[in-house]
């Protein structure tokens, strides 16, 4: 079989589009907001419903497989990436934006085999932009090829980062200290769309040179990781080592020179890996 995953890739694009349609419709209605890991880590019925729709559709087409979904993990499902073909899903990336009507919300669906990402689909549903990439086959936005920017000078760059949902003072201090140092290099600007998946697509299109964050989860960045790489960009750990999807730390950039320069300024803080063993409550 020459191309075993093409059908799954095409199907993921269709499922992401349908999920985005659900999100758009739900955004027009009254929503009940709940919280998860902290009072600023929001979740709505739409997040849960859309994840179920996506998983049901994938199971219907391809049978029972391995799934890592943001809301399933929040409800106690394991978050372990094995060698099995695995779908990695964020039904609503940018839930805070969704709740507030801030216009960047994305569906993110990735697929990994032998722990390697095969393809990623990010549907920025309020902008109606469908980003997709398959390993070795290029990256696209609404079927047009996309490529990272060719800027090599950090002083000519725009950098994206986010504040995350951990509001402990020592963490927020490090995040702002890092941002201050990067701003004062100086770079042209700092931005943040409020969705990691969309941020990575902005790196992939060349609108910005880099996006970094500590505290994201594998479902926020798995699809974007393929899209950035296929658009010619690089992925690294915040300490300059190799990118590790489950580590909750990532720098994505148009090239290694920009990534290395940002890494020099990053003040890292501890986060628990996505695949850390779950502590059983006594
Ligand atoms: O909870 P959702 O799926 O909305 O994901 C967001 C993360 O929670 C933030 O840490 C992160 O900063 C990004 O905003 C990210 O995409
Ligand atoms: Mg997310």
Automatic annotation (TrEMBL):
<feature type="binding site">
    <location>
        <position position="90"/>
    </location>
    <ligand>
        <name>Mg(2+) 2</name>
    </ligand>
</feature>
<comment type="similarity">
    <text>Belongs to the inositol monophosphatase superfamily.</text>
</comment>
<dbReference type="Pfam" id="PF00459">
    <property type="entry name" value="Inositol_P"/>
</dbReference>
<keyword id="KW-0963">Cytoplasm</keyword>
<comment type="subunit">
    <text>Homodimer.</text>
</comment>
<keyword id="KW-0452">Lithium</keyword>
<dbReference type="GO" id="GO:0103026">
    <property type="term" value="F:fructose-1-phosphatase activity"/>
</dbReference>
<feature type="binding site">
    <location>
        <position position="93"/>
    </location>
    <ligand>
        <name>Mg(2+) 2</name>
    </ligand>
</feature>
<dbReference type="GO" id="GO:0007165">
    <property type="term" value="P:signal transduction"/>
</dbReference>
<dbReference type="GO" id="GO:0046872">
    <property type="term" value="F:metal ion binding"/>
</dbReference>
<feature type="binding site">
    <location>
        <position position="70"/>
    </location>
    <ligand>
        <name>Mg(2+) 1</name>
    </ligand>
</feature>
<keyword id="KW-0460">Magnesium</keyword>
<keyword id="KW-0479">Metal-binding</keyword>
<dbReference type="GO" id="GO:0004346">
    <property type="term" value="F:glucose-6-phosphatase activity"/>
</dbReference>
<protein>
    <recommendedName>
        <fullName>Inositol-1-monophosphatase</fullName>
        <ecNumber>3.1.3.25</ecNumber>
    </recommendedName>
</protein>
<dbReference type="GO" id="GO:0046854">
    <property type="term" value="P:phosphatidylinositol phosphate biosynthetic process"/>
</dbReference>
<dbReference type="GO" id="GO:0052833">
    <property type="term" value="F:inositol monophosphate 4-phosphatase activity"/>
</dbReference>
<dbReference type="GO" id="GO:0052832">
    <property type="term" value="F:inositol monophosphate 3-phosphatase activity"/>
</dbReference>
<comment type="pathway">
    <text>Polyol metabolism; myo-inositol biosynthesis; myo-inositol from D-glucose 6-phosphate: step 2/2.</text>
</comment>
<dbReference type="InterPro" id="IPR020583">
    <property type="entry name" value="Inositol_monoP_metal-BS"/>
</dbReference>
<dbReference type="InterPro" id="IPR020552">
    <property type="entry name" value="Inositol_monoPase_Li-sen"/>
</dbReference>
<keyword id="KW-0378">Hydrolase</keyword>
<dbReference type="InterPro" id="IPR020550">
    <property type="entry name" value="Inositol_monophosphatase_CS"/>
</dbReference>
<dbReference type="GO" id="GO:0047954">
    <property type="term" value="F:glycerol-2-phosphatase activity"/>
</dbReference>
<dbReference type="GO" id="GO:0006021">
    <property type="term" value="P:inositol biosynthetic process"/>
</dbReference>
<dbReference type="GO" id="GO:0008934">
    <property type="term" value="F:inositol monophosphate 1-phosphatase activity"/>
</dbReference>
<dbReference type="InterPro" id="IPR033942">
    <property type="entry name" value="IMPase"/>
</dbReference>
<dbReference type="GO" id="GO:0005737">
    <property type="term" value="C:cytoplasm"/>
</dbReference>
<dbReference type="InterPro" id="IPR000760">
    <property type="entry name" value="Inositol_monophosphatase-like"/>
</dbReference>
<dbReference type="GO" id="GO:0008877">
    <property type="term" value="F:glucose-1-phosphatase activity"/>
</dbReference>
<feature type="binding site">
    <location>
        <position position="220"/>
    </location>
    <ligand>
        <name>Mg(2+) 2</name>
    </ligand>
</feature>
């Amino acid at each position: 079989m020459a191309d075993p995953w093409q059908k799954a890739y095409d199907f993921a694009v269709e499922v992401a589009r349908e999920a985005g349609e659900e999100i758009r419709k739900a955004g027009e209605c009254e929503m009940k907001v709940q919280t998860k890991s902290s009072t600023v880590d929001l979740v709505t019925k739409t997040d849960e419903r859309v994840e179920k729709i996506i998983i049901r559709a994938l199971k219907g087409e391809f049978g029972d497989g391995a799934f890592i979904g943001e809301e399933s993990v929040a409800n106690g499902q394991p978050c372990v990436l094995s060698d099995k073909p695995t779908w990695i899903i964020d039904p609503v990336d940018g839930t805070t934006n969704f709740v507030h009507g801030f216009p960047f919300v994305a569906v993110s669906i990735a697929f990994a085999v032998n722990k390697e990402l095969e393809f990623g689909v990010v549907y920025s549903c309020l902008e109606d932009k469908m980003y997709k990439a398959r390993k070795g086959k290029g990256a696209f936005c609404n079927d047009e090829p996309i490529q990272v920017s060719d800027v090599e000078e950090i002083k000519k760059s725009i950098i994206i980062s986010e504040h995350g949902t951990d509001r402990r003072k020592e963490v927020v201090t490090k995040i702002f200290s890092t941002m201050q140092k990067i701003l004062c290099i100086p770079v042209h600007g700092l931005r943040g769309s409020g969705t990691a998946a969309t941020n990575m697509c902005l790196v992939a299109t060349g609108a910005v040179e880099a996006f970094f964050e500590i505290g994201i989860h594998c479902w926020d960045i798995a699809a974007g990781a393929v899209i950035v790489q296929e658009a010619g960009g690089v992925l690294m750990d915040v300490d300059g080592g190799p990118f590790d999807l489950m580590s909750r730390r990532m720098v994505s950039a148009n090239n290694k020179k920009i990534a290395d320069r940002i890494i020099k300024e990053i003040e890292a803080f501890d986060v628990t890996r996505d695949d850390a063993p779950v502590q059983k409550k006594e």
